[in-house]
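Study this one:
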Amino acid sequence: MARVRLSVAERREELLRAAIEQIQARGVAAVRIADVASALGVSNALVLYHFSTKEKLVAAAFAYAAEDDLAHLRKLLGRRTSALRRLRAAVRWYAPTGQAKGWRLWIEGWAAALREPALRDVTKSLDQQWKAAIAEVIAEGVAAGEFRCPDPAAAALRLTALLDGLAVQLTSYPGAVPRARAQEWADEALARELGLPGER
């Protein structure tokens, strides 16, 4: 049976999805152009036509995954409800005990970004956009009188640093921190940052 001809955009998206799957399975260092090509039954040359190097393919795959995560975050934070409810929903989703997928992918990305400038730019941009989105909703809640927070940007940084650290613990060292305890810590951290007496 003949393969369906895809548009350039459709082909790139197919390659990016395959690259993400291969990175999750093999790790950034071990994944090869040939692995992505083989997963789709296409030639190495086709992959290289769209992404001239492995480094460009990997950076583009992480950017693609980041956009998906950011779109979901924006959806959660854009709901028509209180800032507190939106923040709780975002933290619950993003926390390593929540529904967010791909923590292994992002831990791989952080490690590889130490040596790959293109990947560093992608992970840094995602990090900045995530923190900015959280800080914006915290500022909205302060303006609405829902809670107190003298420095929303610093609160967003501390909160995401805790969640990222917990993700490393839960993903890299299963059993090191009970999932229920990690969720309690995330909830407590949010309450502390917003000057709340505790989980309500």
